[in-house]
Specification:
Layout lengths: L1 H33 L5 H4 L13 E7 L4 H18 L3 E7 L4 H14 L3 E5 L1 H10 L5 E6 L2 H4 L13 E5 L4 H11 L5 E7 L3 H16 L3 E7 L5 H11 L2 E4 L3 H4 L2 H8 L6 E3 L2 H7 L2 E4 L2 H17 L15 E4 L1 H7 L8 E2 L5
Parallel strand pairs: 1-2, 1-3, 3-4, 4-5, 6-7, 6-8, 8-9, 9-10, 11-12
Antiparallel strand pairs: 10-11
Helix pairs in contact: 3-13, 4-5, 7-8, 9-11
Length: about 350
């Protein structure tokens, strides 16, 4: 009797177990019928800043810091490359927040990920990229002098190997002449720049020689970083009639400091590029960093498509435009020479 009862209990448990399994199958089927089936595209949806693995190029962008000129160069690069390759390209953008060591970390990450091309925006980013890989194509932009940045003696315009790019170098002798055009009687000119930026040093050395050739006294005022910019700028404005600031990333990121010192002191500032002139300057012979970025993007498209060999691709340059800051000129009572156009307000 006990055996029969035990057998009945076991049979009941088996029936309940089968029913439960059947119920789960039916629930899964119902849920599947209500969901939209996942497409193959959904299955490979990239993470933000990434790209699908099939049939596309991944571009790593290392930008030294955020400021108007570098941002415009990156935007121009992305726009041009997207127009050329459409959905076949995507970007991994990283900002080093002004730290050269962070540039190296970013580049090493790109190399580990196996990106197809690296955009190095500004000199420290280019230097980090050159040290980080000799295989992945590297395009620099917002770099003034590649020979200086990469310690190339007798640079002839082509880096070779896996590196090329675009230069933001404006004619430095013409920038020196611009100061005399605006202020013919000026004698004492201070050159304010960040000593940590090799290309800033290069620019002020050239401009200093050109100004001295025009009969001026030109004095260098280097600052190590943004922490001592105010003190150095104050000294420079007290000791000179005019200041000149080259295409310098640290200065570009701190134009408010320069303007708050120089404008009340009635000391005009002439700048190496438009973003600095907009923030604190009177005038500039400036390039368009957006156009510079577009040129770099067009170079990238040629490299990725196999139309050009980066090893033989010369560094590209762009034209300059004469521009002035209307607000500062009016406040300082400076007459604008013919041939200059007003800088538009920042968007």
């Amino acid at each position: 009797m006990k055996k029969k009862i035990l057998a009945l209990l076991l049979a009941g448990l088996m029936i309940l177990s089968m029913a439960a399994c059947g119920g789960n199958d039916n629930a899964d089927s119902a849920d599947a019928g209500n969901d939209t089936p996942a497409s193959s595209d959904d299955a490979s949806t990239p993470e933000e800043g990434g790209t699908e693995a099939t049939g596309s190029y991944i571009i790593g962008i290392c930008q030294l810091m955020e400021h108007e000129a570098l941002d415009a160069a990156t935007k121009g690069f992305q726009d041009a490359l997207a127009e050329a390759l459409g959905d076949g390209v995507s970007f991994k953008y990283q900002n080093a927040q002004g730290d050269a060591n962070t540039c190296s970390t970013i580049i090493n990450g790109f190399v580990s990920e196996g990106v197809d091309l690296i955009l190095a925006n500004a000199t420290p980013a280019l230097q980090a990229a050159a040290a980080g890989t000799s295989d992945i194509p590297i395009l620099g932009t917002s770099v003034t002098e590649y020979g200086v940045a990469l310690s190339i003696d007798d640079f002839d315009g082509t880096v070779g190997g896996n590196i090329s790019g675009t230069s933001d170098r404006a004619p430095l002798d013409e920038q020196a002449a611009m100061i005399k055009e605006w202020m013919p009687d000026v004698q004492k000119i201070g050159l304010l720049y960040c000593s940590a930026e090799a290309n800033s040093q290069y620019q002020v050395d050239v401009v200093k020689a050109a100004l001295e050739g025009l009969g001026c006294t030109a004095t260098l005022y280097p600052f190590a970083d943004s922490n001592d910019l105010a003190a150095v700028c104050t000294t420079a404005s007290n000791e000179n009639e005019v200041l000149y600031v080259p295409t310098d990333n640290t200065a570009a990121n701190n134009t408010g400091i320069i303007d708050n010192i120089c404008r009340p002191a009635k000391v005009p500032v002439f700048a190496g590029e438009e973003g600095i002139a907009r923030g604190c300057g009177v005038a500039t012979l400036s390039i368009s960093y957006y156009d510079l970025g577009r040129t770099t993007g067009e170079m990238a498209a040629q490299i990725l498509s196999g139309e050009a060999d980066i090893a033989t691709m010369p560094v590209a340059y762009t034209t300059v435009t004469k521009k002035y800051n209307a607000d500062i000129c009016e406040e300082l009572g400076i007459t604008v020479p013919e041939g200059y156009e007003a800088i538009e307000a920042a968007a």
